TrEMBL record:
This is Solute carrier organic anion transporter family member. GO terms for molecular function: bile acid transmembrane transporter activity; sodium-independent organic anion transmembrane transporter activity. One of its GO terms (cellular component) is basolateral plasma membrane. Its main location: membrane. Residues 300-324 are annotated as: Disordered. Residues 469-524 form the Kazal-like domain. It is found in: Cell membrane. It catalyses: 3,3',5'-triiodo-L-thyronine(out) = 3,3',5'-triiodo-L-thyronine(in); L-thyroxine(out) = L-thyroxine(in); L-thyroxine sulfate(out) = L-thyroxine sulfate(in). It is a multi-pass membrane protein. Belongs to the organo anion transporter (TC 2.A.60) family. One of its GO terms (biological process) is sodium-independent organic anion transport. It comes from Caloenas nicobarica.
Length: 711
């Protein structure tokens, strides 16, 4: 009886356990479904965000590739081009604080989708002037003259030219003056770039924090790394697209290409710069569509529901269930959220590591943004390369080097479990050796091309003292030439002449690109003054040593790009580890704001002003006034461009040394690992292993504005 009673007791106890097991099974099943739903949703968002990063990186890098094209098309100086380039940062500046602080409380995917639409509208607006300002006109006097009429380019008397030809030429000049107001349409390019900046603003802070909030903690770094990797691919396609469009004539589809008398190697050539903006605008529209169908919040992973500091949004919005979210959302008001703004700002600026690193970054980005903005111009002017080849080289060689450097920095941090103090050392070392390599580029330049009247005299003497007066000589004194014209020809003696008239040419044969000039009285003066020689259309090529120097430049440039990029990820980790966790997004917003205001806006402007001082020959607008620069002093350009970049870089290194000194001072001799302290907001010591494991989701490739194109 006792045994049977025990069996019955055991039987009933087993029966009472069964319902518990079933409920447990149901909860596990629902959790599994929730996990699958969460993973599916976050992966869809990840794919959409990666495409947006690709779109914005492509349009941003394409703008860099068209800097020289825009300068020539609108006939404006480099300083004004710098203002246009900086307008992107101004647009970003207008709303970055609002987006980074208040955007996390709103529907983040739809805000990103709205930003994509604004970004595409700005991209389309940049291309619009091409359709309203008339056809592009370049300086070619002999192209307006019928080749069947024997006319001397050295016009000693207006009566020498048929009246119909002069009337036709004068009519074209008058028509150009009537449309001179069209040159002010560069304002639309500026406004379009401004809209691009406004639209791009929410993508990075809201997109990254959305992933960080809803992804499984151990997968967050992988997801963000995927986004940044795709973002690096964008500039590659952007510069390759710029290379392709630069080979196409600006008015392709509007004029007969057989009537074009210049080639893509000519300094006056303008490619189809507008075509790439139309393509980039369409891509931006497509990239924004998925975000309108994504939910405001995804189910939070089970592993992160109990975390109080995994995301800044947990301070403001609780997402455990809908009831709690709704009740809390009703209590929160904009005024209450704004109360924490000034205390958070004060706490942030009271952190010495953050302030010093911010100063170092501002100065370094002044150096790098100015460098990348005018790198295509530098390659074209210094080494005599075409715009198409320049963009191709930057897109296919430099950008992958930057991507590999960023990836290497992240792998080094993860493999060797480098502490924050070690990250500061790695960032400092990469900057130091990168700028040291940059110093060697001073010896890898080309000498000025021999241009009669500018870099050499008509008698072969180097460096004339007065460039304007030196344009005229005894050999062309009998010609009625204009010193403002720029229609270069290459003499058979290897010297470039500003125009066929200033070369003293008496006749020509052929038309367009195949024109050959004869009996040029100035061409033979360098070797045999009595001999009159011929010349062909277009400037002469640079010296024989220039192609070799260009190859050396590419090698050093790639190594420099890689070296400087290695320190990007360690610097990013240093920034995130030394601030309070709940101030992460706000700190990044302030950081981005400072970079844009104090580096992104002014750097292209003062770099452009400095580069303009090296101009030897300015173009002239049809109705008077100074246009774009036609020829630069190669030596002066090299010293100004590289010198300004190097000086700013060295100053930033001193601030990086100060960061390292503060970190050493705050670390203990036994353990130099530094982590974020939530109470004081300063850096204190912690074990290296715990610090790295707890913050492993922060190990990610960094992506800052212009990072993908800065080198």
């Amino acid at each position: 009886m006792e045994i049977s009673s025990k069996e019955n007791t055991q039987f009933f106890s087993n029966n009472t356990i069964l319902p518990v097991d079933r409920s447990s099974f149901k909860s596990e099943s629902s959790a599994s479904k929730e996990k699958q739903s969460c993973c599916g949703g976050i992966k869809i968002f990840l794919g959409a965000l990666s495409f947006v990063y690709f779109a914005k990186a492509l349009s941003g890098s394409y703008l860099k590739s068209t800097i020289t094209q825009i300068e020539r098309r609108f006939d404006i100086p480099s300083s004004l081009v710098g203002v246009i380039d900086g307008s992107f940062e101004i647009g970003n500046l207008l709303i970055i604080i609002l987006v980074s602080y208040f955007g996390a409380k709103l529907h983040r995917p739809r805000i990103i989708g709205t930003g994509c639409l604004i970004m595409s509208a700005g991209t389309f607006l940049i291309a619009m002037p091409q359709f309203f300002m008339g056809r592009y006109r370049y300086e070619r006097l002999h192209s307006t003259i019928n080749s069947t009429v024997s006319i001397s380019p050295c016009l000693q008397d207006k009566n020498q030219t048929p009246i119909s030809v002069w009337e036709k030429s004068q009519a074209k000049i008058n028509a150009g003056c009537e449309k001179e107001a069209g040159s002010s349409m560069w304002i639309y390019v500026l406004l379009g770039n401004l809209l691009r900046g406004i639209g791009e603003t929410p993508i990075q802070p809201l997109g990254i924090t959305y992933i960080d909030d809803h992804a499984i903690e151990e997968n967050a770094a992988l997801y963000i790394g995927c986004v940044q990797t795709v973002a690096i691919i964008g500039p590659i396609f952007g510069f390759l697209l710029g290379s392709l469009c630069a080979k196409l004539y600006v008015d392709i589809g509007f004029v007969d290409l057989d009537s074009v008398t210049i080639t893509h190697k000519d300094v006056q050539w303008v490619g189809a710069w507008w075509l790439g903006y139309l393509i980039a605008g369409v891509i931006s529209v497509l990239a924004g569509i998925p975000f309108w169908f994504l939910p405001r919040h995804l189910p939070k992973p089970e592993s992160r529901k109990d975390s109080s500091t995994s995301s800044e949004q947990s301070k403001f919005i609780t997402e455990d269930n809908k009831d709690q979210h709704k009740s809390y959302q009703q209590q929160v008001k904009m005024s209450e959220m704004a109360k924490d703004f000034l205390p958070s700002l004060k706490n942030l600026f009271g952190n010495p590591v953050y302030i010093l690193y911010l100063c170092a970054s501002i100065i370094q980005f002044n150096s790098l943004i100015g460098m990348v903005t005018y790198k295509p111009k530098y390659i074209e002017q210094q080494y005599g390369q075409t715009s198409s080849k320049t963009n191709f080289v930057i897109g296919l060689i430099n950008i992958p080097a930057v991507a590999f450097g960023i990836l290497s920095g992240g792998l080094i941090m993860k493999k060797f479990r480098i502490s924050v103090l070690g990250a500061a050392k790695l960032s400092l070392g990469s900057s130091f050796f990168g700028y040291l390599l940059l110093l060697s580029l001073f010896a890898m330049g080309c000498e000025n091309s021999d241009v009669a009247g500018l870099t050499v005299s008509y008698h072969g003497t180097k460096w004339t003292s007065d460039y304007e007066q030196a344009l005229f000589s005894e050999c062309n004194s009998g010609c009625a030439c204009s010193k403002s014209d720029w229609d270069p020809i290459c003499g058979e003696n290897g010297v470039t002449y500003i125009s066929a008239c200033l070369a003293g040419c008496q006749a020509f044969n052929g038309s367009g690109k195949n024109t050959v000039f004869f009996n040029c009285s100035c061409v033979g003066t360098l070797e045999s003054p009595s001999r009159r020689s011929s010349a062909v259309v277009g400037p002469c090529q640079k010296g024989n040593e220039c192609p070799k120097m260009f190859l050396y430049f590419l090698v050093i440039s790639v190594i420099t790009s890689y070296t400087l990029s290695v320190g990007g990820t360690p610097g990013y980790i240093l920034l995130l580890r030394c601030i309070k966790p709940h101030l992460k997004s706000f700190a990044l917003g302030i950081y981005t704001l400072a970079i844009r205001v104090l580096a992104g806006i002014p750097a292209p402007v003062y770099f452009g002003v400095a580069i303009d001082t090296t101009c030897l020959k300015w173009g002239s607008k049809r109705c008077g006034g100074r246009g774009a620069c036609r020829l630069y002093d190669s030596r002066a350009l090299r010293y100004v461009y590289l010198g300004l970049t190097l000086v700013l870089g060295m100053v930033s290194i001193f601030f990086s040394i100060a960061v390292l000194w503060v970190l050493r001072k705050r670390s203990s001799p036994q353990d130099e690992t530094v982590s974020a302290n939530g109470e004081r907001g300063t850096c204190e010591t912690k074990s290296r292993k715990d610090n790295f494991v707890n913050n492993d989701h922060l190990i990610q490739t960094t992506y800052w504005p212009e990072k993908e194109t800065r080198l």
